[in-house]
Design brief:
The protein is an alpha/beta fold. The protein has helices at residues 2-16, 174-187, 201-213, 236-239, 243-253, 278-288, 403-440; strands at 27-32, 35-40, 45-46, 52-60, 66-74, 82-86, 93-97, 99-102, 111-119, 128-132, 143-148, 158-164, 191-196, 216-220, 258-264, 268-272, 292-303, 331-332, 343-347, 352-355, 360-363, 366-369, 375-381, 394-395. The longest helix is centred in the C-terminal third of the chain and has 38 residues, at 403-440.
Length: 441
């Protein structure tokens, strides 16, 4: 029995332990007086001993003069950390002990989101900082991070930004993704942030189209190259591929870029019932509830298992596209009594210090739970028959309010993306043809 158990335990420990990425980080040199080393450009950076993974650094002066690092940590293996500030006015190094604030939402996993927070030294104004488990070390060997949000603003380049959860591996729900993005644009989104792992070739072409259009900003998220979870005890899906870390990074990334930030999963849309878009809805809510900067919306689950067979919503062009057609899923699960209903948010990011998927852990100002008569969170997912039989589902056609513009806009996207594909194939065929003729003659 021991010969069987010992290899299993060794394999389990290997699977649970975080690992470094297989490819080297993309880095440039930092040479400012004594501040010398590698300036990190990748989304995720493993610190020494591979137990802490830093995503990005942000200046936060809302209460104190702080630098906040958004990170993933192995919470049982936290060690002392120190912030090495590169002071801009004299290029000296100032070392401050860090405080590690671990987020409570870990889903029972050994890894989770954390903030590594340091009080900035006086008369320093650092633009770069490194994080190290010691007050001693070679500066040339340390990874250096740029501190973002150094300048706070009261004007914003965007009014509404959507922060989506992590796009999981091999994502291929193309039709629903395009429908969701076009709905976000109709409702007032100026930008959609996507933390991308991997996807199908068609999905990749769709993303490239939206990037060129200026709607989507992609942040690569190779989390499985850094943190390995045991497939026996845990899964990346349980963890949401680090969705809490991504959510908090997106908040701080847009702190002074966007007036409001909308939190959604890819299969979710905050649907106003009394207003044509988010702007008019939020302005109305702010007039009624002054001082509120965080708005919660109830999740309402629409079954993917039950189809509505209406030809006008079964568009011919869409039949060849993989994914869910949200216009055909209008049967809603009843809310469970005596159970806390999940919610998503539209927030003023300056009001948020720390967020989880469905709540604000730390923040400023008042919050408001928006009535389901004003708006709902449309969530199209697989129906759980062990919870409700199909006979209990309720017909709810709220999303049809937008069907005309949605169908037209989605068709335009596919026309452009697919026509480009046909053009590129035609060019390749003609190129091969002329090359063959050249060889003959």
């Amino acid at each position: 029995m021991l010969w069987m158990v010992i290899p299993f335990l060794v394999l389990l420990l290997f699977e649970m332990y975080p690992r470094r990425p297989s490819s080297p980080a993309s880095q440039t040199k930092l040479s400012l007086g004594p501040c010398r080393g590698e300036l990190v450009k990748d989304t995720i950076t493993a610190l020494k001993h591979n137990k802490t993974f830093v995503v990005s650094l942000y200046h936060d002066d809302r209460q104190q003069n702080l630098t906040r690092a958004i990170a993933v940590v192995h919470y049982k293996k936290i060690q002392d950390l120190y912030c090495w500030f590169c002071c801009s006015h004299d290029n000296r190094i100032s070392i401050i002990r860090a405080s590690v604030d671990i987020h409570p939402e870990r889903f029972g996993l050994p890894v989770g989101a954390a903030d590594i927070v340091c009080l900035e030294p006086q008369r320093c104004l650092p633009q770069y900082m490194s994080i190290h488990p010691s007050t001693r070390g070679s500066m040339a060997e340390l990874p250096w991070f740029e501190i973002n949000n150094r300048v706070s603003r009261t004007w914003f380049v965007r009014e509404y930004t959507v922060c989506l959860s992590v796009m999981p591996e091999n994502y291929d729900n193309v039709l629903q993704f395009v429908q969701s993005v076009e709905m976000y644009k109709t409702l007032g989104a100026n930008k959609v942030f996507i933390y991308k792992m991997s996807c199908s070739s068609l999905m990749d072409r769709i993303l490239n189209f939206y990037v060129q259009e200026g709607t989507v900003e992609i942040i690569l998220w190779p989390i499985t190259s850094y943190v390995r979870l045991s497939s026996f005890w845990y899964s990346y899906q349980d963890w949401g591929y680090g969705k809490t870390t991504v959510l908090n990074d997106c908040i701080y990334r847009n702190m002074y870029r966007s007036k409001y930030v909308v939190f959604n999963d890819i299969n979710e849309i905050i649907l106003p019932l009394k207003h044509p878009n988010w702007k008019e809805m939020i302005e109305s809510l702010e007039d009624q509830h002054p001082g509120v900067g965080i708005f919660f919306f109830e999740s309402h689950f629409f079954s993917q298992n039950v189809f509505l067979s209406l030809d006008k919503f079964n568009v011919t062009l869409w039949k060849a596209i993989p994914g869910v057609n949200v216009l055909q899923h209008v049967y809603r699960e009843p809310n469970k009594l005596h159970i806390n209903i999940l919610k998503k948010m539209i927030v003023n990011p300056r009001s948020v210090v720390q967020a989880s998927s469905h709540s604000i852990l730390k923040g400023y100002g008042r919050t408001l739970e928006v009535s389901r008569d004003v708006a709902i969170l449309y969530n199209c997912r697989r129906h759980l028959e062990n919870e409700f039989g199909e006979q209990y589902l309720m017909r709810d056609t709220t999303i049809w309010r937008f069907n005309v513009s949605l169908i037209s806009n989605v068709n335009k996207v596919f026309d452009q993306v697919l026509s480009k594909r046909v053009d590129s194939i035609s060019k390749a065929i003609w190129s091969m043809f002329w090359e063959s003729l050249g060889k003959i003659f």
